[in-house]
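Recap from last week: sequence in, structure out.
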Amino acid sequence: MAATSQFASRYKKDLSTETLRTKVARRKSMLQKENRHKLFEKGRQFGLADVNVQLSKERGISQLNETSEMCSQENMKPPDLKSSTKKINERKEMLQRYKEEKELRKLREQREKAKKGVFKVGLYRPTAPGFLSLVPEVPVIVKPREKVIRVILNT
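Predicted structure tokens:
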């Protein structure tokens, strides 16, 4: 009985969504890897049509080999301490300039906000234009309407 329960728990463990997702992802990556390798091998099987003609790919590879040799020679030299301190100083200067520009930008934005003024909320009462007659500021009292009662006569 102990053996069957062990297998049952393993089966249940394999059914969790996380494990299923990882299995699918691994399977997919393996398939991609195999397909990529197949395409690579397929490309390698094609020979040169003419021996005298050099392919552009090979030319690029030879140039890359030369540049890699030059890079490897440059890497053999010990790094200059002066150049590293120079780079550090340049970075510090750039940081200082950035901070100054940021401060200036902040001050400029504050000035622009001050020029705009405060945004006011309320009723808009524009001043009357000159061609209109001046309306007195005292409001006109409107009389309430009299209620008219209609009597319907049944005749």
